[in-house]
């Protein structure tokens, strides 16, 4: 039974393949990528696969039984891209699609939610068995800013006192591998988030503790945060998106206390402190 992973050379895709190889034969894993040369180190079969090019996608999915559709990274284009993939999967006879959606996509105010909901609806109408992994925030979405925060002497954002139930990217990757290799997953929707939650002030406090250097959290009005991000070279549209996600976090859209992720993993999710420690070690 062959399992294919889209976006296999991306940050999440690589980790999923790493975890899948612990649970099944590498010979049964297919990496679907835009550039097969970049997949040479994955140790699995690689096939050319471009979300934007509907022609040829079904051919690339030949012989695939299960497909992990990792949501694309081109915000605004994903509804159409994912529709191409789902149509191709149906044509190729894929039996089961697992999709990485967004935590509480059906009620989230995050700007990312509508495209995820559209993809969920397309899956439900496809006639293909599906499982939806509504992934919460990756802790790395925030710890990726640590280097700049240390240089600036503060961690900035617009999330107020919003509680964030994040987990490491590896936690979500392992969950995907478990679902892909477990029976009776059809029709399930998982709301996946970290076991514990924190505010960005809590994150800054943990960073301060580990660095033994005061790194306060500066909570900014949304537009001010946008303006600061632009001074760092972030394009305006993306800066607005980042600030908007923080505003949604302030509304509770990144909080969940159901512990579905740790139940699926059979272990606690990775604590914030551990991901901060790992990030600092890599600087």
Explain how this protein is built.
- By secondary structure, the chain is α/β, with parallel strands linked by helices.
- It has two domains: 2-135, Rossmann fold (3-Layer(aba) Sandwich), CATH 3.40.50; 136-168 and 193-256 and 271-283, UDP-galactose 4-epimerase, domain 1 (Alpha-Beta Complex), CATH 3.90.25.10.
- It has helices spanning 11-20, 57-60, 78-92, 113-124, 140-143, 146-152, 169-180, 200-211, 222-231, 236-250, 260-265, 272-281; strands at 2-6, 29-33, 45-48, 64-69, 96-102, 129-135, 155-157, 189-192, 217-219.
- The strands form two sheets. It has a seven-stranded parallel sheet, with helices on both faces. A two-stranded parallel ribbon has the order 7-9.
- Helix 3 (78-92) runs parallel beside helix 4 (113-124), helix 8 (200-211) packs across helix 12 and helix 9 (222-231) runs antiparallel to helix 10 (236-250).
- The longest helix is centred in the first third of the chain and has 15 residues, at 78-92.
- The termini are far apart.
- Pfam families: NAD_binding_10.
- InterPro entries: NAD(P)-bd_dom (IPR016040), NAD(P)-bd_dom_sf (IPR036291), NmrA-type_oxidoreductase (IPR052718).
- This is NAD(P)H dehydrogenase (Quinone).
